[in-house]
Amino acid sequence: AQSVTQLGSHVSVSEGALVLLRCNYSSSVPPYLFWYVQYPNQGLQLLLKYTSAATLVKGINGFEAEFKKSETSFHLTKPSAHMSDAAEYFCAVSVTGGTSYGKLTFGQGTILTVHP
Amino acid sequence: DADVTQTPRNRITKTGKRIMLECSQTKGHDRMYWYRQDPGLGLRLIYYSFDVKDINKGEISDGYSVSRQAQAKFSLSLESAIPNQTALYFCATSDFTSGVTDTQYFGPGTRLTVL
Questions:
Q1: What is the rounded CA–CA span in Å between residue A46 and residue A107?
Q2: Distance CA B62, CA B46 (A)
Q3: I want to staple B92 with a disulfide (CB 3.0 to 4.6 A). Which of A41, A83, B33, B59 is the partner?
Q4: Can you tell me the distance from the alpha carbon of B61 to that of A104, in angstroms, rounded to the nearest whole number?
Q5: Which of B41, B96, B103 has its CB closest to that of A49?
Q6: Does B5 touch chain A (CB under 8 A)?
């Protein structure tokens, strides 16, 4: 079975600072990996996804993530935080085969706070 | 109009009551999902359906049931609601035509409170 661990339930940065949200996964088969964002009182929307093409994935709003198989990681970064980035971020894994094919397993979420 | 809609958006009910949460989608996707979100636990899968005739339990299906009335409609029922079912519930859809796990698209959520 696959699993996801997000390191840090809360991350706080200053506006203009680097954003780094950490995600480690466990999967016995090649994974697909996703980052979703949830703004207050809204559903989840996709930021970016890795599906075995390029290991560095660029998403919306200036975010990117790098798939590192050796570290089983898929950390999310943004060079310069903006106040509008304040939200909860979820990492998720899906597998490419077996009985769990097509299902997402989510991490517990990281709340990003951006200070002026 | 939103591609994935959920009704109601908010619901307060009492222990023991039967509750139905409804989800409709206009994306034409075959796959639909129900999740619940609890603080600090992320989203957990309750039930999923890969087509109208296919219903599968997720990791936390106890106390819940579902109905896939059509490709576009997937309802979640709590037969006898209990307080620990208080949560934010999300419906999601995805496509599979490319043979690759595709993006899941989420509805706005239903906030359910069981007193």
A1: 14
A2: 8
A3: B33
A4: 16
A5: B103
A6: no
* A100 alpha-carbon distance from chain centroid: 20
Is B42's CB within 8 Å of A101's CB?
no
Alpha carbon distance B23, A108 (integer Å): 24
pLDDT tens-digit series, residues A87-109: 999 999 987 665 556 688 999 99
Burial of A77 (0-12, 13-18, 19+ CB in 10 A): middle
Quick: pLDDT tens for A14-30. 999 999 999 999 987 77
Report the residue from A36, A96, A108 with minimal CB separation from B101: A96
* Partner-chain residue, chosen from B40, B104, B109, that has the shortest CB–CB distance to A104: B104
CA distance B98 to A12: 39
Which residue bears the tokens 């949200």? A21
